[in-house]
Amino acid sequence: MERVYKKHEYQCRVVYGEMFASQLQQTPVTNKRVIIVTNQRYYDRFSQKLGQLFSNYSDVDWYICTNSAHCNNLDELTALLNFTAKFSQEMSYLFVAFGNEGVMKLTGFFQKVSVLSGELWCLPVSIRSLAKALTLSNTIEKANYQEVMALPGLASQVIFDQTLTNNQSEGKMVDLLWFLQCGIVRDHEFLKLLYKNYPNQKKLMRQSFNGLIESLLNYYEADSESIETYGQLFEQAFYQLSAGHLLSDHMKRLLGILLHLKWNDEIESIQFNYQNFLIWLDYLGFPIALPNDFLTSTYVEQVLLLGKKSKKIVVLEKIGIIKEHRLPTEKELLKTLESYKTIVQKIKGEQHENI
After folding, report:
1. Beta bridge pairs of residue 313
2. What is the pTM of this model?
3. Which residues pair with 224 in a beta bridge?
4. Ordered structural domains, the chain, with CATH
């Protein structure tokens, strides 16, 4: 499948459901030096295969990042700029972002600031890195994952070859979060479709996301910013807590989405069965409980502090329909967290009784 993806004045060619090798045969890269930016794990797994594909037509160099989803940081940007300083400015280049979401952002920013002239291709290895390749914001972070620089732009091509994706079970569950955000922010019927298609973990692990990619492209083309930032304020507050290290990056994202939605449900009746939604996610294997030593007052303080530095956040009128944008109050946050913990305790308690 192929389509032209447009965001404001930017556009790119998106290809999915096809192998990258066949795409490269149709459009070989000639008279260009190829610089591939990737994570260590994908270099270890695919460097020989991908290197051979490109080396049939061009010289290839690799820059290898850490495996962190936040490898789009100042240190990596500096190292990448130093790495490419040895290359001639007289040549034409192809920059290839092959890896996780951090690689998509890092390479997108690098391509904009580098003195080397060349186009950018993105080869995402997951739904989440595909989503990042579809956003205009190429960001660089500092400590605590605070964004310090951003430049708009899209790659000339985004090629999603699912034979190069990460098939681990954790990766499949994390990718579902991006589809959940699309359903929550853009389309209630899509959210219902996810529930129907993935009623349990067995179905989630076995059933492909192929049929959902076109919808993802449509939702991101319409409003990628609202989708990507949904839950972000609540997520970032976890990074400021001493207990935050007990949660992985993806667990922070999950809880950020869930707490944003619960806050929304507290201040605006969205006619949505939130408890059943949590039961489904728990049944799929998502860790919905807050850390044992989680301090509500400290967390609320961090959300409020971050809120002063950020944009107003989405408030839904109903699932899939945005009403307004505003920031939460202390009273609302306290009520949200107490309500959330009560629901989780009820769900976990019922499970214990059933055992």
Report:
1. 326
2. 0.92
3. none
4. 2-164 (3.40.50.1970), 169-354 (1.20.1090.10)
pLDDT category of residue 259 using cuts at 50, 70 and 90: very high
Contact 165, 125 (CB under 8 A): yes
- Amino acid symbol at 313: I
Pair 164, 138: CB distance under 8 Å: no
DSSP run (H or E) holding 38: strand 33-39
Q: What are the tens digits of pLDDT across the range 96-137?
A: 999 999 999 999 999 999 999 999 999 999 999 999 999 999
**Contact (CB, 8 A) for 6 and 67:** no
Assign 338 a pLDDT band (cuts: 50, 70, 90). Answer: very high
User: Whole-angstrom Cα distance, residue 309 to residue 328?
Assistant: 13
Helix (H, G, I), strand (E, B), or coil: what is residue 249? Answer: helix
- The total of other beta-carbon atoms located within 10 Å of residue 25's CB is 12
Residue 271: which of 215, 182, 191, 351 has the closest Cα? 191
Residue type, 303: V
In angstroms, the CA 163 to CA 68 distance is 21
For the chain, give the number of residues.
Answer: 355
Q: Which tokens go with 319?
A: 């699932």
Report the C-alpha gap between 289 and 49 in whole angstroms. Answer: 41
The span from the CA of 101 to the CA of 70, in Å, is 8
Which of 59-73, 156-170, 220-234, 289-303 has the weakest average pLDDT?
A: 156-170
- What are the start-end ranges of the H helices in the chain? 20-26, 40-55, 74-84, 101-113, 127-133, 169-186, 188-197, 201-206, 213-229, 232-239, 249-267, 274-284, 296-309, 330-354
**What b/e sequence results for 94-130 when a residue is b if at least 16 CB atoms lie within 10 Å of its CB, and e otherwise?**
bbbbbbbbbbbbbbbbbbeebebebebbbbbbbbbbb
pLDDT tens digits, one per residue of 274-326: 999 999 999 999 999 998 888 999 999 999 999 998 899 999 999 999 999 99
- Say whether 331 sits in a helix, a strand or coil: helix
Contacts 24+ apart (CB under 8 A), 242-246: 243/291, 243/293, 243/294, 243/295, 246/291, 246/293
